[in-house]
Amino acid sequence: MRVDIGNALAATARPGVSADALDRLDDRVAAAHDRIADGMADSEFGYAALNLPETADPAAVEAAVEPLADADTLLTVGIGGSALGAATLVDALGDGLDYHALDNVDPAHVRDLLADLDLADTVVHVVSRSGTTAETLANFLVVRDAMADAGVDWTERTLVTTGVEGNLRDLADDHGLPVLDAPEGVPGRFSALSTVALPAAALAGVDLDELLAGAAAGRDALSGSLYDCPAYAYGAVAYALDVRGASVNAMLPYAEGLETFAEWFAQLWAESLGKDGLGQTPARALGATDQHSQLQLYRAGPRDKLVTMVRPESRPDCAIPETDLDGLDYLAGGDLGGLLDAEFEATEASLAESGVPSVRVELPAVDAHSLGRLLFDIEAACVLAGELYGVETFTQPAVEWGKDAARGLLRGEADLPEKDVLVVE
Amino acid sequence: MRVDIGNALAATARPGVSADALDRLDDRVAAAHDRIADGMADSEFGYAALNLPETADPAAVEAAVEPLADADTLLTVGIGGSALGAATLVDALGDGLDYHALDNVDPAHVRDLLADLDLADTVVHVVSRSGTTAETLANFLVVRDAMADAGVDWTERTLVTTGVEGNLRDLADDHGLPVLDAPEGVPGRFSALSTVALPAAALAGVDLDELLAGAAAGRDALSGSLYDCPAYAYGAVAYALDVRGASVNAMLPYAEGLETFAEWFAQLWAESLGKDGLGQTPARALGATDQHSQLQLYRAGPRDKLVTMVRPESRPDCAIPETDLDGLDYLAGGDLGGLLDAEFEATEASLAESGVPSVRVELPAVDAHSLGRLLFDIEAACVLAGELYGVETFTQPAVEWGKDAARGLLRGEADLPEKDVLVVE
Fold first, then answer.
1. Residues A74, A390: Cα–Cα separation, whole Å
2. Which of A173, B2, B263, B326 ranks highest by number of CB atoms within 10 Å?
3. B50-209 belongs to which homologous superfamily?
4. Minimal Cα distance from A294: which residue of B?
5. B127-184: per-residue pLDDT in tens?
6. Belongs to which family (chains A, B) (predicted)?
7. On the CB side of A287, how many CA atoms lie within 13 Å of its CA?
8. What is the DSSP letter of A249?
9. Which CATH code is given to the segment(s) B2-36+211-396?
């Protein structure tokens, strides 16, 4: 992975990081790297995620999905970190598998989706570490019922990833379902390279060995200086820009296959760093489409944005046919990829021209090795940023209040505090 | 539409709007409304969008699509405002039509999509007011070629929306294609209720009369006080919170069908208001899914957010089956919609508990009338906010630099300014 932070420096951008400030920050990166390396060596909670390139067991995943590999459709039942990793891998790399993530409890959507699927030809992958996630378990109960109604033996089509104890483990044991252990010490949002997401990738034809080899290359590249490590260069600059006023990080991949990656990034960044009044707000975007939506704001709005531009260095061919339409001579004989790359470079230059900081991230291609590297490096960037902010990167305490309140409401046990109301209708 | 701004007031939230400040702001709303009403009366550029409930001609749209209505698949070829309105309507209300928006020029995606479609059974709707939008025209040339390769007469399957002059108009005239006029004086991002998006909705089985009746109800509700007009209540509070520090507006619908609406909102808000260093940054979200992704940041991160929570008051049924799984007694016998609503209310209360401002927007249902009302009211809110900021709501000058630079690159005529480079790899 190649990270170019030139357009995030103070010579180009406001806010921007000066060369001296970057040198001073590099001392803190060295200390943070020591902390991270210790955490990895001891497989501490959270830091263990960065060991997945070695600890993941692709053969076990492949063995678990092999009896189900004849299905044309996969339904992941999970939410948040239990769904986004799989969707990211399949949307970027999947080859022909009809994939759906059931990651919300909207009755209209669930009904429509189940009515559309051929359940006899569908694998259901249920993912919940605790085995008690309300949305996931409710959806699973509905799906199981729908399979029974369709005359499908759900025990033949269901795969489970969960912790070593709990509801889902008991259920899997009782019915002899294939079950994979959720990785120890790895929060959901850091679990894309584990049993949480790899089964979906395997069913979608992704080469797990290549994916993990890419991640291992990221691990091997970790080092005590941001100038030697692309992951840390990205994490350090994002942090430095945030504390200088770039409180929004717009993730703008120029590849449709990476649209879900931007969503995965948004979860990782928001839930890991959004603590103690700190944390950069991720904005999900897609190039070139969002040039016609968000770029006006990025260039001319408040000076509170870092734009992260991601692209593959190679793309498949798709020639633009010749035409006699007026004013389109500049397109003719070209290729869609050439047009997309010209827009990438022009947009990057247009941000620099107006002094908006951007970082360029380049991958060899949208392939398994590059994606493994990208996910690992962005995770490492996030862990580094967490060290620099001094927050608890691997927990999400602020969501517990709402979970408890929702359970209380459903049990009829608890009332919510009275709400201030000012209705206009 | 019902807008509850109680949780955005200073009694609950920081930042929050005090009751006195809201009263003072209402004088400015009255003046802005006069300006908007004048613009509508004179069909001025941009303001003309708010006349679409009356000026749109659903019968003409239905007549244009009628000969194509046997197709199972629709492909919109457009970008930005020429695609998002159609996607918003079809994703919320469409019934069974296989819908795709070709709104990017990624060669991998375009190739895969065209390989998957049965082009003989596909309607192509090409949308570009100017007839020269690079991405749209390049994609159209590729699609036309693919149809020819598949032995399909593209002139039998193509519908055009464009201006009264230009490339696409000439093309349509030369080949006798059905063609609809892009609405006069209506910027793309305000064109969801026009010939730009209504053809897709009609093909997807949406009741255009109901949709426009909902919008007309929004128009009829415009008045000189935010206390009497939900659209203005929303626009005024969003503006007031932004200038008090809520520089991010997280659009969080609790309905899968409104996921694309959040994207449409993000375009409308960003491109209309992101000017002169001003403008609130939209963040696209989805409830309940993003409780497991963004909520940690919203509650515990920087105090720079307004959370806009949208939900329908009625949902279809989808019962949660009984279960003997441990700890899930509170779900049993309930309904997915009840779970989703409990999460909505618990999340809203959890934001209030931590002092984060939110606004609640409620629709009777996700149906044509309600969606027409929602789109109209959010457009009116945006126009009002533009008046309060004092920006040029209806233009997007900051994107021109990049468009020119991309054309220059592709023509081989212009070099970009030299880039600052600091590469880590």
1. 40
2. B263
3. Glucose-6-phosphate isomerase like protein; domain 1 (3.40.50.10490)
4. B270
5. 999 998 999 999 999 999 999 999 999 999 999 999 999 999 999 999 999 999 999 9
6. Belongs to the GPI family.
7. 26
8. E
9. 3.40.50.10490
